[in-house]
Design brief:
Structural class: alpha+beta
Order of helices and strands: HHHEEHHEEEHHHHHEHEEHEEHHHEE
Low-confidence stretches: 1-12, 398-403
Number of strands: 12
Strand content: 15-25%
Number of helices: 15
Length: 449
């Protein structure tokens, strides 16, 4: 999995791991032991033969659920248990160095053991451990996908508990669910076949990688195809959830409505993520089409603020617009410019603590209009400012997990601004907030220097 994410196309690899995890879940079962066993099989499939184990937090300590190739010394001694305890308390991955060979029969030596917590609702409920080297444990490219897999495991384990709690559903609802499951199974089969085709195509591309000059274009095409293939079953799932929630298929109990509402909300968030992925793909490949015309930047700012105002009020933020209503028109795509402003405002709200301030400003700068979003949030270090517009990048802040997000919004915003002939910049100091500003030309042929 790690090599795949490091050298293969990231969009396709993420979809493959997701589909492999879901398929393993369906094949092995949704109980605790089956989910954990399927996950270890998935790790071995992508990382090769290496010792691995899944632990359960029992309160007083950790109890082993299942293992692959473990040796007694990894969890019997006090030093090993101390490393497990640190990961349990910190909630973050911990590396436990080990001085002896742990896989002599495989003729592969690892330098220790990486423990990755499985958290749900801010609490560590389980943990998986696998043999690793020090270099791997320090590499975010190695550790971060394992953390994502831990999040998937937490979702799967939570879902398994929900299944146990809802076994007493009415027969008519069960028949509807079975029908939907069959249809989803057929859709899943088509997805699996499509992923197989993509794997075959990738293998062919890998052989000719040194000869190809358009590798970025190929990556974008793969990302677009996978996103479209994911959206098809998602649309079907959302439709069936709406039918059931509207009680067109029969009456529902309050608990059933609650669970189905959660599922529909997750489908909506996933659909938004797919839309962002498609936008990134179109921007990078040059396939994003802009509908250029004269548009009012003041109205764009006002509408974007009205859209974000409930979220700002929910955190008791001072939310201000500082712009002249007579601001000159700009040459651009109204909907895409609004998307840029909404992304910047949403980012400011996420990383500004309760009671903070957010100012949305517009000012004439010669042949350009400068738009700025200033907040009093956590701010960025110089190193973070260099990476903040990269795809999937998220600043390492203390409220990163509570803020959520995918790291695509700023990348999309920068791409749209560049397509308008402008530039998106950030000015920030750690702990003192941040200001994101961009220039939009007032004339069709003007380009920001």
């Amino acid at each position: 999995m790690i090599n795949m994410l490091g050298k293969r196309l990231k969009g396709v690899a993420t979809a493959e791991v997701l589909l492999a995890f879901v398929q393993s879940w369906e094949l092995h079962g949704s109980d605790e032991t089956s989910i954990c066993s399927g996950t270890l099989d998935l790790l071995r499939a992508y990382l090769g033969e290496r010792p691995a184990c899944v632990w359960k937090n029992t309160g007083p300590g950790l109890a082993k659920i299942t293992e692959r190739g473990m040796v007694e010394m990894f969890y019997s001694g006090p030093e090993r248990r101390a490393a497990l305890g640190r990961a349990l308390v910190s909630g973050s991955p911990e590396f436990d160095p080990c001085d002896v060979s742990v896989t002599s029969e495989l003729k592969i030596d690892f330098e220790g053991f990486l423990h990755v917590p499985i958290k749900s609702h801010g609490q560590v409920h389980a943990m998986f451990s696998l043999a690793a080297n020090r270099k791997e444990a320090r590499d975010r490219g190695f550790v971060q996908p394992l953390e994502s897999l831990a999040q998937l495991m937490a979702i799967a384990l939570h879902h398994g508990k929900d299944q146990v709690a809802t076994e007493g559903r009415e027969k008519r609802l069960k028949a509807e669910v079975d029908a939907a499951t069959r249809e989803l199974g057929q859709t899943n089969h088509r997805l699996i076949e499509r992923v197989k085709e993509l794997k075959t195509l990738y293998a062919e591309l890998q052989k000719r990688v040194l000869e190809l000059t358009n590798a970025n274009k190929a990556k974008d095409e793969f990302l677009s195809v996978v996103s479209h293939e994911l959206r098809t079953p998602l649309t079907s799932l959302s439709g069936f959830l709406s039918v059931v929630l509207d009680e067109e298929a029969g009456p529902l109990g309050e608990q059933q409505k609650k669970f189905l509402g959660i599922a529909k909300g997750s489908a909506i968030r996933l659909n938004a993520l797919i839309s962002d992925l498609l936008d990134v793909s179109r921007i990078e490949s040059g396939r994003l089409q802009l509908e250029m015309a004269e548009c009012s930047m003041y109205e764009i700012l006002r509408e974007a603020m009205e859209q974000a105002r409930p979220a700002a009020l929910g955190k008791s933020l001072q939310f201000r617009l500082q712009a002249n209503i007579m601001l000159p028109a700009v040459w651009g795509d109204t909907s895409r410019l609004r998307q840029v402003v909404e992304n910047l405002i949403s980012n400011a709200i996420k990383f500004t603590d309760r009671g903070g301030e957010i100012d949305v400003m517009a000012e004439e700068k010669g042949d350009f209009i400068e738009i700025s979003v200033r907040d009093t949030g956590t701010g960025l270090t110089p190193e973070e400012q260099e990476k903040v517009f990269d795809i999937f990048y998220q600043a390492d802040t203390s409220n990163r997990r509570t803020a959520g997000g995918t790291g695509l919004g700023l990348a999309i915003a920068r791409g749209v601004v560049v397509m308008h002939g402008g530039q998106l910049r950030v000015f920030s100091e750690k702990g003192k907030g941040a200001t994101f500003s961009f220039l939009i030309p007032r004339r069709r042929a003007q380009i920001a220097a």
